[in-house]
Amino acid sequence: MTRTALRHIVVPVTITVVLVAWLFARVSPRQLVAAASELDWVPLAIATVVMVILLYLWDSACLTTVYSIHHNRWSFRESLRLRGLSYLLGCVNYEFGQAALAWELARLQKTGVVRMLSRSVLLAYHDIFVLLSASLIGSLLTDDPRMTRLRPFLAIALLVAVGIALAFKLLPQGIRERFRRKDSESFLEGWSIGRSLRLLGLRCVYFGFQVIYAATALQICKLPIDFRVTTSAIPLVLLANGLPSFAGIGTHETSMQLLLAPGREQAPVLLAMSLFWTTGLVICRMVIALANLWIGKIDAGPSIAFAAANDAAAPKPTE
To answer: Which among 38, 56, 233, 285 is placed 20 to 30 Å from 74, CA to CA?
Structure first.
């Protein structure tokens, strides 16, 4: 095992262990078990399964917008297969899942893996922008001190995100064109403002599913947290999920405790709910991944065919 691969395993596991230890110092295992035993598991499980399916379908629908080059198109079924298979590694480590997805999409389009990985970076940038914007808007809609104290930091972070895009736009044209050259390592070739706006809309819906799920789960668990607070806090929880951790365990639960600050009496209930969220997501996604493997063995996978570009006058792709 290489040193880089080892680091990608040891660091997330270490962070998870440290954060879980902090959580259990705050909430004892006995309190957690007691709180979990009182939860209404059936509606919570149904809500979790529905959320995972919606995320899977919508995330698959985003793939062509993010990764397509040279007007390439592939079927929605193929997107479902690729996203589903990426869950095999993504359930344990998000970066591994994205790397596997980039590898398959590079093979699909006969291009460099670096180009597909760089598109994943673009996706992450758009996700950060959407989550920061949603959190800031939510904080402006409430007077809850848990969120109002975060407003200046959210505004600064959002300005930095916008500044990055403006800085690139202000670069000399010669430098910008290096990012758009038509070779296997160019990651902005074919990208446009229109494409960014379309992706922003898609990701707003994607993260909206998770905010609605969180609000629903909080109601099921009888946690009295205002929807406006949820709207502001959950995007930050989703941002924290991008930090290194094992299967998202630790970062998710810790951010929920810190941002929602439920108090000593409600902390065990919130921890039980957030652990159910994390483990339910992992289990459901693993089922999806295994189902795609099984389907692939039956029909040997769908054939790959690129549709012609909508613009008949578009030049033929060159590699």
So the answer is: 285
The token duo for 267 is 């902390």
What are the tokens at 138? 């939510």
Q: How far is CA 259 from CA 19, 142, 216, 238, 262, in A?
A: 15, 14, 17, 12, 9
Q: Give CB contacts under 8 A, 24+ apart, made by 288-295.
A: 288/52, 288/56, 288/84, 288/87, 289/84, 289/85, 289/86, 289/87, 289/88, 289/91, 291/84, 292/80, 292/81, 292/84, 292/85, 293/85, 293/88, 295/81
Backbone phi, then psi, for 263, in 5-degree steps?
Answer: 95, 165
Q: How many domains does the chain have?
A: 1
Q: Is residue 307 part of a domain?
A: no
* pTM for the model: 0.86
CB 120 within 8 A of CB 65: no
In a domain, 54, yes or no: yes
The shares of helix, strand and coil residues in the chain, as percent rounded to the nearest 5, are 75, 0, 25
- The CA angle 308-309-315, to the nearest 5 degrees, is 110
Asked if residue 305 is part of any domain, the answer here is: no
Q: Which domain holds residue 177?
A: 12-183+191-299
Of 86, 67, 100, nearest in space to 286 by CA: 86
Q: What pLDDT does 216 receive?
A: 96
Among the listed residues 145, 128, 73, 59, the one whose alpha carbon sits nearest the alpha carbon of residue 105: 73
Is residue 104, in this structure, part of any structural domain at all? yes
Is the Cβ–Cβ distance between 153 and 131 less than 8 Å? no
Instruction: State the DSSP H helix or E strand holding residue 246, giving kind and residue range, or none if neither.
Output: none
Predicted local distance difference test score (pLDDT) of residue 302: 44
Q: Which residues of the chain have pLDDT under 50?
A: 183-184, 301-314, 317-319
